[in-house]
Amino acid sequence: MKKKIYYNSKIIGEIIYQKYDKKSDKIIKVIQKNYPLLKDLFDFELSPIKIHLLYSRAEMNKHWGTKTPPWICGFVKGKNKIYILSPLISQKVSNHPESTIYKAIIHELVHLFVKKINKNPLAWLNEGLALVLAKQMKDNTIKKNDWDFLMKHNFITEPKVDWEEFENKSGYKASYILANFLCKNYKKDKIIKLLRINAKEKTAIKKLEEILNAKKNEFIKKIEKNINFI
Q: Could you tell me which of 33, 86, 151, 212 has the fewest CB atoms within 10 Å of its CB?
């Protein structure tokens, strides 16, 4: 089944789902509520988005291209596609209960906006900003060993960790802490400038320090004062 997603009489997307899945209506409402907020924040609109609801881990693996771990419930593909487990079955095939999928939709929508700005943004800023805007995390608690590991492995510019380590070493929580600090202490224009930094460029760290008007280590120490280490 397919259904158009409207906002102010304008088509902003389309959702593809199974006929029996009544949860699709709630996802549409979540998109309609949050899309205009993100549009105003980023100051541009996306091409009409396509949201594909998935109904098994095998289906997720097929679209991802390889086997996926249970913590992955959604991802973006191309310029405008979001693949995500339906809230109807998410708890059966992942470690995500139904309630978290609606926030995950916002998370992936943020990724589409960021992707339009930069295809290779700083990983922590891309993930952290999505977590902040989707309100998926709340506190600044993180394991000290995990934080030290990430900082040691170049987390602020281009992390020298794979996605499994990123997950296992609290990479998402560290990203949230960093992005949340930015959102509370810096204006939107600086955050947008940071999003434009290509993480693969040799000058990435220099650009970051110029925008923040601080050395990387100074920036990290300032944030660490607000972290609840365990």
A: 33
